[in-house]
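From the pipeline queue, job 12 of 40. The input is one protein chain; the requested action is below.

Action: predict structure.
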Amino acid sequence: MPALTDAQSNAVRELLRVSPVAVELGERFAAAGHALHLVGGSVRDALLGRLGDDLDFTTDARPDAVLRLVDGWAEGHWETGIAFGTVGLVRRGFRLEITTYRADAYDRSSRNPEVTFGDSLTDDLARRDFSVNAMAVALPDWRAPDAFVDPYGGLDDLAAGVLRTPGTPERSFDDDPLRMLRAARFAAQLGFVVDPGVVTAMTEMAERIEIISVERVADELSKLLCAPHPRAGLELLVDTGLATHVLPELPALRLEIDEHHQHKDVYEHTLQVLERAIALESDGPDLVLRLAALLHDIGKPRTRRKEAGGGVSFHHHEVVGASMARRRLQALRFPKDVVAAVTLLTELHLRFHGYGQQGTSAWTDSAVRRYVADAGDQLSRLHLLVRSDCTTRNRRRAAALAAAYDDLERRIAALAEKEELGRLRPDLDGAEIMRLLGVPAGPVVGKAYKHLLALRMEHGPLPRERAESELLAWAAEQGLGPGVS
């Protein structure tokens, strides 16, 4: 966390970068008799030296006045948030959002506010989630001695790396329960410590999160997971009880260790797998991989069985877990492609285990082909998940597992070079099947295609003559003659 002098230097540097656009905008508002401030996360990020190209502003001007003021200046604008007082626009590569001061009233039974515009910057800052997001810088003269507005000690909290609410956390979370998830998200994003009073309020008010729409919850969870330190945010959700309401499968992993210590703490193991997966990422945060790491063992509580001799088993937990992952992600309304990918990775994450235990001959080329085919376009993620899943402290076993997976990847590469494993297809396509069997498109063609694909998996590429012979032999076994559909 930067010291105050560092934070101030960061802010000057960042404000100089955005000032051509921000100052122009401020001058337009000032000429019309309106106040304009850079606000919230934009000020926080400027102080941290990480301000991007998305800028947030607040003003006393009403939305219709804002639209008039930016007309002809903005290179484009959108009004999707105008009912809540926000006008969005684009200028010189920056995305700007200008929101009228708010003084909303909330119904305790819902998150739908009765939008009321205010006239006070201080009151507007008071209704923001955390003090570090309740700072503002006046425009156009952001260098003026009184340009920096910080009525709730946000700069001190930023320097200390602490998340506090401008007012009481109970009032803040009562106004908007989503702020409890945002506390966990900011802990994960910024590495901040959450104030004990805020943690207490989160714990006591956890069930209030249930009035928030699942889409907003999923958005916060996604941002948390893609943050630099998701473990900190996830632990906060579990410790406060919030996870019980938004992702109950996670706290359920805190299984009681049996007296013989025959199995790991699944919750701790899961967090370790997540951290290991993150360390293996090569192209920025991968939400699918991180979700798969988080959910890959959620089937264990339901499949836990005590065995004779004091052992514990979790037979078929990957199958049960895949079904559970699908239901949870669907309930949170994640995109279908994300749901499908995480479900598949969860189902396949144990497939590798057993490879190499009896020498590499334990898996035939056919088994390797099936592994690749079943993983499909998730193969690269499956590699990372499987490697991350080895959290044993036994160095010899860890080395053996890593060596076995290295060998599997080499075999996949060798087969791929010879056989184009990335797009496995039968040796005859649908048109050729119809021509040879004399049948139209229909169920017979689909069955024949699957049969030829199974042969391709088992034996690799077949010469055309053999593929045709195998197809005709299969058709005879099925009692199919020309024209049968």
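Job complete. Residues 276-421 form one domain.
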